[in-house]
From TrEMBL:
Lineage: Bacteria, Pseudomonadati, Pseudomonadota, Betaproteobacteria, Burkholderiales
Catalyses which reaction(s): dTDP-alpha-D-glucose = dTDP-4-dehydro-6-deoxy-alpha-D-glucose + H2O
Organism: Paraherbaspirillum soli
GO terms for MF: dTDP-glucose 4,6-dehydratase activity
InterPro entries: dTDP_Gluc_deHydtase (IPR005888), NAD(P)-bd_dom (IPR016040), NAD(P)-bd_dom_sf (IPR036291)
Limits of the NAD(P)-binding domain: 3-322
Pfam families on file: GDP_Man_Dehyd (PF16363)
Stated family: Belongs to the NAD(P)-dependent epimerase/dehydratase family. dTDP-glucose dehydratase subfamily.
Protein name stated in the entry: dTDP-glucose 4,6-dehydratase
Keyword vocabulary terms for this entry: Lyase, NAD
Cofactor: NAD(+)
EC number(s) from the headed UniProt entry: 4.2.1.46
Amino acid sequence: MIFITGGAGFIGSNFVLDWLAQHDEPVINFDKLTYAGNINNLASLTHDPRHIFVQGDIGDTAQVAALLEQYKPRAIVHFAAESHVDRSILGPAAFVQTNVNGTFGLLEATRAFWSNLPESEKAAFRFLHVSTDEVYGTLGPNDAPFTETTQYAPNSPYSASKAASDHLVRSYHHTYGLPTLTTNCSNNYGPYHFPEKLIPLMITNARAGKPLPIYGDGQQVRDWLYVSDHCAAIRRTLEAGVPGEVYNIGGWNEKANLEVVHALCDILDKLDPKSSGSYRDQIAYVTDRPGHDRRYAIDARKIERELGWKPAETFETGIRKTVQWYLDHQDWVSNVQSGDYLKWVEQNYSQRQTPAGVQQ
Ligand code: NAD
Ligand code: TYD
């Protein structure tokens, strides 16, 4: 069986659902169920004996160690993290706690378990660390995309904490020989994405008749990847990745934020038209994010060349599926927009003024 951390979050729950749709190998899903974890994402697995859910903190080395001894997984796929840049700006402590100390605790429990395995199982074991392209910092408009050897230059508390976790994972391979794999992926989107992030926030705000808050001039560029393509890349890396190696994962879909929001509005105008006007009329420019990275872009040629992975979705097919999913899952949206979510929206957006002189 495999042991997943953070399997009730956005990417983790997509991974668990995809995994069990394709394999019979059981999954231990270890998740703290923070505001971002949602066990309802896995409701279809409630009676599935291949899915074992355990609530807990990756920093609790004793609990993780006991679970590893009990279930003896052949691999760990580590998704659990605090993942939202804006939250890391308003409250960085949780990011250091989970992403750095938590990953350290998990690595220690893993090292203790792995060291005692018979030699053949030791060699076959994998610790796959799921990381982000944000560790590489920001690019100028004409810079080449990030490769696996681009120097780390994290700019937010989120990316700095992920960079620290990447370094710890690297050190456990070099020092102890733990068979690690690290993947650095670009921005994901798709089903079960918590509506604090750009794409689901814009879809849910648009439908609720609320403003669509564009930070700064909206010309920041992200490289978007449909979540099931990321899950496929992780499965392939787990299967064929070389221990100690790093693989960049991206969709070759660089888009400015404003372009993404326009695309969402245009799809909504077709699939769920307003009684008058366009969803674009709700766009509102607001104060920029401090330290906002201007551009991310991934050079994904290594994973394509060495592991034969390529994204199946284009931005156009993936974004349309995503909007349709949100239209079809109103109950999911209502459930996650609970008290805590509303508090966050108030905290993040009430301070952001509409800059004078900026066209609405
Ligand atoms: P998410 O915030 O949606 O989910 C995180 C999950 O981790 C939640 O289920 C949460 O309950 C759990 N968790 C948090 N702290 C924990 C702890 N201390 N112990 C156990 N569980 C804990 O995040 P996501 O978007 O699904 O991202 C998953 C991973 O992928 C993260 O490591 C993130 O850095 C990385 N990543 C995300 C993106 C993206 O676009 N979302 C892109 C590249 C990499
Ligand atoms: P986000 O989804 O938070 O991902 P990340 O910061 O990890 O890339 O944001 C994506 C882009 O969208 C980023 O440039 C910030 C911008 N953004 C807005 O313009 N408005 C918003 O309300 C949010 C949440 C993000």
